[in-house]
Structure formats: structure tokens, C-alpha cells
Amino acid sequence: MRNVLSVAVLVGLFGATAAQAAVVYSEDFTGQADGAAPSSGGTNWFTSGSTADTSARAQISAGVGNAGPSLQLADTSSSLGATAEVNFGVPSFSSFDTGLPGANQSTLTIGFDFRVDSFQSTNNSGSTLRVAIKDGNGTGTGADDRFFVFGFGRSQVNDGGAADNDLYLYAGGASAFNLSTVNDSNAIGLIPGTGWLPGFDFGQVAAGADDNNTDGLFYRIGLSFTGGEADVLVTATQLDANGALTGNTATKVVTVANPLALSNTGTDGIGFYSGNGGRGVMYVDNINFDAVAVAAVPEPSSLALVGIAGTALLARRRKR
User: 167-199, pLDDT tens digit by residue?
Assistant: First the structure.
């Protein structure tokens, strides 16, 4: 019991923390052939839709990217959908775990470049062009199944203008691969009752799918998850035609009902989806996972106390 108490005293002296970031996964699709299914480190992603089915496909696009190639999801069907998923447990991922708050690698930031070239949907469902982070078995039926969804969609929002269907980026927690609806609460770059931040007004929904897009530009997206916490920090920054930052940035803190505990074990993963009520073309590039390690750092005055406590522990052991 004395040893336990002594260790507790030592741990209590380490009040400050220092963050150390490590890249646990990175994929920019360099070297992957045009029209091929995406892969990482020789491991193929799970995909549905292919070049054989031109109505819905997930494939590498050599001609588009930041810089190319990139992952393309192209969906011209209102009933089918394209899917590209990678499990965090594949060998390409280094070890990380956000389910251990206060321990090493307890914060994970997922980054990617996102661009929409065309979009059409008959409703404001979140089943649009989207990215879903999954925690659990990925079926939407497990008790521990949780999702965080980022995407491009449409809805009537309070932007100070007419009650039209606006196009916008959105993010939110979910219990399945899509949000049940997108609205003011999960719109990114919206100033309720006023308008949009620069770079985030994509206009109203047009009749032609090719007129609904992110203006031919990529957006650099960041999603930060911390173990045990319900708040997810979302950042979106507009890139210019050359891939440089424009300075147009929006941030949003999204509070989820059930915090995600992500790790490189089990069935956690990331997926890119289209269709199921909408159609269009989107591109994703420069996927990065950065885990932040939190290591205890003693205060200068604590170092002396640690030395005294350590000496006392050694002296007691010698007496035994």
C-alpha cells in the first residue's frame, strides 16, 4: 500500500503536459493508376462501384487532385451509390487510440482535401456526397456503432436571404453513415440570420447538377477527436486553383451525443460515399491522420521534489 501511495505522490507532481504529434497515416494516392481501385501500402480499400458500372464508381483519378492523382467518387444514379472505405487496422496505420483520455495519442486529427464538381439531390437528407468516420462495426446496428459525418448538401437555412435551398458544407454526429438531415446547426461557415463567411457561400440549388459545386476548388478539412470528449473541432479552409491557402477559413465545434473512441484496432475506419438519394462527383486527396501524444512534464520545482521522493523510496527499499 505504501508503494502505491508513493507512486501516486510522484504522479501528482506532474501537472503540466506537452503535446507531441505523430503522423499515423498518410495517403495522397501517388503512383496509383488512373481508373484503379484505391489502395494503401499494397492493401486495397473496400469499394463498391467500379469502371464497369459507369453509373456509380469509386476510382483513382490521375487528372484531378492537389496535385493529382486523387480519389474520385462519381455517381450519376439516383438509386445507386459509390463507396470507398479503409479500415484503421490495415498495416498502413501506426498505433493510436483516442479511447484513453490523458494517455499517449489521445487526440486524433483527420485531415483531407475535399472538392465537389457536381451535385443533385431531391431532398435535404445527409445521404449526399460525404465522408464518414466510423467507430464500431460499421453496420449502423451495433450498440457501440457511432459515426461522424462531413459532407456537401442542401437545405433551407437562415442565412438572411430568401427561403431557398442553399448549398453548403456540413458536419455532425450520427448513428449511421449519413445524417438524418442537414440544417443551420451543422452548416459550416454560416452566420445565422446574416449570411456566409467568405468562401463558403455556394449559392442556391440549381436545376443542373454541374452548377452545384465548390466552385472548382478544394477545401482542406480537419476533424479533431479527443478521447472521452463530446466536442469535435471542425475546420475548413478554402484552397485556390494552385492548391494554396486562400485565407478563407471556417471553424465549428460540433457536440456529439456519444463520443467516438477511435483506434487502429477493431473495425474503426473512414469511408467516402455518394448516392442513396443524391448523385454527383467528388474528389478527395491528401488524407492525413495525426495523433497527439500527451506526455507528463514536471514543473522545475517538482523535479527537486521528485528527487527527494525518489531518494526516500530507495532508502526505504534498502532498509527492507
Answer: 999 998 887 777 766 778 889 999 999 999 999
Contact 43, 91 (CB under 8 A): yes
Query: By the 8 A CB rule, do 183 and 163 touch?
Result: no
Give which of 89, 166, 164, 83 is closest to 130, Cα–Cα: 83
Residue 228: which of 97, 120, 64 has the closest Cα?
A: 97
**Tally of structural domains, the chain:** 1
In whole angstroms, give the CA distance from residue 266 to residue 28.
Answer: 24
Q: Long-range pairs for 9-14 at CB < 8 Å and ≥24 separation? A: 9/309, 10/306, 10/309, 10/310, 11/296, 13/298, 13/299, 13/302, 13/305, 13/306, 13/309, 14/296, 14/297, 14/298, 14/302
Q: Which three cell numbers stand for residue 7?
A: 507512486
Report how far apart, in Å, the C-alpha atoms of 146 and of each of 97, 214, 272 are: 16, 28, 16
**Whole-angstrom distance, CA of residue 70 vs CA of residue 74:** 12
Q: Beta-carbon neighbour count of residue 305 at 10 Å?
A: 15
CB 108 within 8 A of CB 289: yes
Span 50-92, pLDDT tens digits = 444 456 688 899 999 988 999 998 887 655 667 888 888 888 8
State which residues form the domain around 172: 2-319
Residues 223 and 191: beta-carbon distance below 8 Å: no
Q: What pTM value is reported for the model?
A: 0.81
d(CA 307, CA 55): 69
Question: 84-120 as b/e, with b when 16 or more CB fall inside 10 Å?
Answer: bbbbbebebbeebbbbeeeeebbbbbbbbbbbbbbbb
Instruction: Please tell me the distance from the alpha carbon of residue 272 to that of residue 56, in angstroms, as a whole number.
Output: 13
